Amino acid sequence: MLGIAESTYYSRKNHSKTIRDELPSEVRRGRPCTEYSLTTDGRKISNEQIKEWLLELVEGEEQEYGYKLLAECIREKHHLVFGNKKAYRLCRDLHILQVQRSVKPKHPRRLPKNQLITGSNQLWQMDIKYGYVERERRFFFILSMIDVFDRVIVGYYQGTVCRATHACKLVKQALTDRVKEGDPLPVIRTDNGPQFVSAAFGDMCEELQLIHERIPPKTPNMNAYIESFHSLIERNLLSKNEFETLEQAYAAVDGYMDFYNHRRKHGSLKRMPPVTFSKWILQIRESSEFHRAM
Q1: Which of 22, 50, 149, 270 has the fewest C-beta atoms lying within 10 Å of its C-beta?
Q2: What contacts 52, CB < 8 A, 6 or more positions away?
Q3: pLDDT per residue over 108-158, tens digit each?
Q4: Are 156 and 220 contacting, i.e. CB atoms less than 8 angstroms apart?
Q5: Is 51 a residue whose pLDDT tops 90?
Q6: DSSP labels for 242-284?
């Protein structure tokens, strides 16, 4: 009557209303649970029988096992086709799930605080960017750290792996290059990447007495300066070039970092490159201090 071919739609059977149909939609999602499981030779084993086997296990030496190891025991002993999800469900019904251990981080997260940045080396933001080598079909990491005041990239690392040790080395080198002995140390702000939540990175910050702030999840605006820089390197370098080798990619990144720091004019830095602006601010402050001393 509608002129639609039967092959373009599926008919829906009008099943009789069951108890499951009367449940709220959020409760009855997915396929209904089966009342049995099959052995490898095709025999049906009821859920009640499986529950008895589970209780026998937890009353014996296997009492310390979680649901995954209990399921493995059932599979080995009774040749049952028995998945971990169903094992979890049955163990939950029997109230024999192991109590989950609470993981206490060695270095709790310190949330960022609003602060007025009035000079260099007060707040450094760090994040990771990915590049791609077309010919070798592999990604590489670019770990960068920017000074929020003068926008200088105070340090960066690139490689096919990026571990906490690389992040620690980058911070230490930047402190050596930028901060004089006795000067206040910058606050380090990152997201919650594995390199930054690691014990190694936390231990380093504690050893050097650095304040490490980690932004809440899904708040890249709180790390806006390094995010903005990474959008520049993506738009002006990574998206415009197809690299054939890692060496070619690394050389291109080195060149862009040098251009950005020393020659790229920045609209919010009086149209100066970041390094030039940083030196200009330093000269002004030294001159002001000289005149006050006179």
Answers
A1: 22
A2: none
A3: 888 898 889 999 999 999 999 999 999 999 999 999 999 999 999 999 999
A4: no
A5: yes
A6: -BSSHHHHHHHHHHHHHHHHHT--BGGGTTB-HHHHHHHHHHH
